Amino acid sequence: MNREGAAQSTAGGSPAGAAPPTRRRLSPRGRARWLLFGAGLLFGLLAVLARIAATHGFAAGQVATVRFGVGAVLTLGLFRLRPGTWRPVNRPLLVTRGALGGLAAFLYFVALSLIPAGQATLLNNTFPVIAVGISFLTLHERPTLHLLVALALTSLGVFLVLGGGHLGFQPSWGQLVGIASAFLGAGAVTSIRALRATDNAPTIFFFFTVGGLLVSLPFALGPWSAAPGPWAAALAAGVVSFLAQMFMTEAYGALTVAEAAVWQQLTPVASYLWAGALLDERLSLVGAMGVGLGIVGVAYGSVLGSRAPARVRS
Question: Model's pTM, two decimal places?
């Protein structure tokens, strides 16, 4: 074999001494977008599971208590398996995140028990839009024009999916509670964005579960159903919520509130699709148009609308 042949006889026919090919890694923002995509699917499933539990024997406070209890247990297990993960730094803001997020989630479950899941999810999921305004005032994160257009597109898509273009708003308690949960949720996600500069996702999530338990427990003291159906749905909601919240909280370390708001518009769309699969609710032609519009808005906002946020520590 000549020199040239020997030089080319390395593994895979690569030239001798050449570095092995390396896999291209996702950028932090690319990873964050995938995390929010997964979170949207899981939050959509959470709404359906909570609706099932709340309409088959559990009170809203009981569903919320199981959800937060499961999340607290899973997070404590994570702290035990990975020593050093428990690292609270900004304790006042952590308490604020726990209080706002816990109350927002509890009110969302109350809304799910009073009005249809689609309408409750639509009203609650206005929180990303509200959060954009709050982040502009408190974190000085100015959204780009492209991002505002994307947010408008995805919001319209959500409206078409869940309202069929005809959301008849009547001031009922369920609707007012859903709106209240949206405003509290907006404050909660804005605090998450600020906290990701100092605290990690598991620590932030644990404060959320504690806040949620403190809010929910007083409303869970009545008799509990012994039927397996609501228990299974509530426990599944707890596991799904744990994963969704961890994905979302981690993603806020790399994205601005405005860009994250675009991706979070996938949640009500996913909720409707999950409801179609699990509750046999059919998607109308208008709803299908809304799904397509939501996907276009997310893609548009991700490609043209993002502005690099300040880096945060893991």
Answer: 0.75
